[in-house]
Amino acid sequence: MLGTIVNFIAIIVGSVIGIVLKKGIPERYKDTIMQGIGLATFLIGLKMGFKANNELIVILSLVIGGIMGEILKIDYHLDAFGEVLQKKVGSEDGDFVKGFVSSSLIFCIGAMAILGAIESGLLGNHKILFAKSALDFITSIVLSSSLGLGVMFSSIPVFIYQGSITLLASGLKDILIEPVVNYMTATGGMLIVGIGINILGIKKINVANLLPAIFVAVALVFLVLRWFPDYI
Fold it and tell me: pLDDT digits over 109-158, tens only?
């Protein structure tokens, strides 16, 4: 739970700073900081990718998972869900509610929250959530400088959401054997590389549509272990 706790605190501290600063931070500083975080996220993903001994399993997982994600339109539905909630918040509800809902969506809906919580629960590795904490820290400063106290309270659903995923993953770690965890980590690492590319603005990658790849990797590893154990 350490990664989620750090994320929780980062949002609160960032919100306090944003409320105090009011006008936020200069755009050039924000851009440079985000570029640094993007590079660090890219590196974290690459290191995770080296967990795989057979790259073909990772490639097949990404291809099959990507097709599944496109069929299910995961990215589209996540965006639509966010838009529906934001429309329900109308201007008459005030900045507090808008800040709470908007920032909750930004912090919770995304591959980094899911992947980070799974990695934290399965392996006790909090690097992804630490990187996410840095991103959310900067974002909370910017949002709270204009939307106020509601942004700070969005730390509560973040804690509940990520904490629940972490606890669920932690309960499964005794069931999942090492090769499965390694290939889940490697495939997830490629998605983290995609997030890094998005942060850097190199190319827009629909990482959410690739999320099924993690679960495809689990199925493929079990199949390969059953029929071709030497290839793991």
Answer: 667 888 889 889 988 889 889 999 998 998 898 888 877 788 898 899 89
**Model confidence over 68-103: pLDDT tens digits?**
999 999 888 877 776 666 666 554 445 777 778 768
What gap in Å lies between CA 195 and CA 41, rounded to an integer?
A: 7
CB under 8 Å to 150, separation ≥6 — which residues? 95, 96, 97, 98, 99, 100, 101, 103
Q: Of 187, 16, 68, which is closest to residue 118 (Cα–Cα)? A: 187
Alpha helices in 1-54 (DSSP H): 2-21, 27-49
Q: What is the dihedral of CA 96, 102, 103, 105, to 10 degrees?
A: 140
Please give the residue range of the domain that contains residue 14: 2-231
Amino acid at 209: N
Closest CA to 214 of 125, 131, 122, 136: 122
User: At residue 168, what are phi and psi to the nearest 5 degrees?
Assistant: -65, -45
Instruction: Give 67: exposed, middle or buried? Use CB within 10 Å, 0-12, 13-18, 19+.
Output: middle
Q: Determine the Cα–Cα distance for residues 122 and 140; give it in Å rounded to an integer.
A: 28
Number of separate domains in the chain = 1
